[in-house]
Amino acid sequence: MKPWGGRFQKDTEKIVEDFTASIFFDCRLAEEDITGSIAHCRMLAKTGILNPGESEEIIKGLEEIRKELQQGSLEFKAELEDIHMHIEKRLIEKIGPLGGKLHTARSRNDQVALDMHLYLKKKIINTVRLISHLQKSLIELAENNLEVIMPGYTHLQRAQPVLFSHHLMAYFSMLSRDACRFKDSYKRADIMPLGAGALAGTSFPIDREYTTELLGFGDIYENSMDAVSDRDFVLEYLSNSAVLMMHLSRLCEDLILWSSSEFNFIEMDDSFCTGSSIMPQKKNPDVAELVRGKTGRVYGNLISLLTMMKSLPLTYNKDMQEDKEGLFDTVDTVENCLQVLAPLVKTIKVRGSNMGKAVSEDFSTATDLADYLVKKGIPFRDSHRVIGELVAYCLDKGKLLSSLTLEELHYFSPLFDKEALTCLDPYQVVGSRNIRGGTSPRQVKKYLEKARKIQKQNEEYLS
After folding, report:
1. For residue 426, how many C-alpha atoms fall within 13 Å in the half-sphere facing its CB?
2. CB atoms near residue 441 (< 10 Å)
3. Residues annotated as catalytic (active site), given as ranges
4. 306: helix, coil or strand?
5. Can you tell me the distance from the alpha carbon of 438 to that of 266, in angstroms, rounded to the nearest whole number?
6. Confidence band of 25 (pLDDT split at 50, 70, 90)
7. Which domains does the chain have, with CATH numbers?
8. What is the pLDDT of residues 363-418, one digit of tens each?
9. Statement: the pTM of the whole predicted model exceeds 0.90
10. Smallest Cα–Cα separation from 247: which of 306, 170, 181?
């Protein structure tokens, strides 16, 4: 008979058991369920609801079940619905009716909420650490290529020259914000729901503060109805993951473009690429493409849970069982993407000469030439027009700005002198951006020093 089957006159249809069972995905909460149950048992003993002998026997049984779960010897069955009932049934098999006392003063509603909080606390910490590993790879690649200059782009058109390291560190900054978001969301995961019961609390004289202390939570849900119906902390993880995956997707898009023959700015290591079944010459950036593609499934998991929660009345509804598969899939996707990208980035071969050649064969220094005239007293809008006409002249004559003579410059403005020619040197242009956040070597080196500290803090997060 089901643990809740007392008021039912018929057995559950097999098709219903299969449809409603969650064991085949919530089994990954087994460790958290054992941990939470042991803490609950200790609290029951402390408050006199169980005697010390009963508590010790129950905890011993739970530890044995923990080992069985770790060894994979516990068989999962759809008719037992979820991981909570599997552990409870196994406990009763091991120690008899006493095992049934463990569920005193709790419901599966606050039990599963507790498991989810415990699980996400661990996963948030791990996500931040994995972010730090990718950050470390970006720092190392940037430090090893500090002299490399490349075109910066807007609208995927060459815009202004930048340091390659400056471009890389833009992604470091994005990842830093991601880490901050996950760290902040930890506070919402770090709230203890056990003791809320099904929805209204319990009449037993439990000690929620003691349970909180045993489990290492920082706070307690103050409202029992909120405790069992809250999935904000899951939504936050999914939302933060969606933003993180968006950043990873943008990074991968750059890597894919740069590794193409049209750009030829970088080469990904053979160990992170694949070939073609028909075209022998191909070297495909499949890892980067897959990260880019997997972003969509993380977005979908967020939208799915938001939609599911949208109109649910308080408190618990079976719909909320649908929170787990999307969360688990997101956790796996995020962890896998971060784990594979860190070594991929670390092994990238930079073709600095190709980047330098590209930036010397375009008009990306035009803005600095316009700024030169502004410094001579011309309003920017007028200087913008002058340089625009100068670029049109170059296009008509098949020239680059760097090939112009001083006489040609004078044709467009008498204010040009020999100093103006330095504005056409990409390295001079990059060096002139010597403001905080700019692309000059001096500023990039400063940020790299700061980045090392940030990365280290993320790596050591709650260690």
Report:
1. 24
2. 18
3. 155, 276
4. helix
5. 23
6. confident
7. 5-104 (1.10.275.10), 112-192+228-353 (1.20.200.10), 358-443 (1.10.40.30)
8. 989 999 999 999 999 999 999 999 999 999 999 999 998 888 888 888 899 999 98
9. yes
10. 170
